[in-house]
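step: validate -> pass
step: tokenize input -> pass
step: predict -> running
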Amino acid sequence: MTQVINHDFTANGQSPTEKWGGGKGYFNAFGSDFGGGTVSLQYSLDNSATWIAMGENTTITANGGGVFDQTACNIRVNLSGATSPVIKSIITKLRFE
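step: predict -> pass
step: emit ->
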């Protein structure tokens, strides 16, 4: 089964932490208004004590996204610097069969 993680943002903050089993995924964020904010896919290898941006293609300020490849870890989406945003983020596990 494909892992899909969705989260809607209407204010700055973080999505709930999710377990990522490792492998490739696609991060996408889109909405009618980013409110000047930055959306970033983040990962943690130390049980959520430290969060690190996944990469340049998964840190965006307008509709877009990118592919990532990460070992098993915790992941979340972070929105910062936004005023009245309306954004949806989707993380999808890519399956190669």
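step: describe -> The chain has one domain: 4-93.
step: cleanup -> pass
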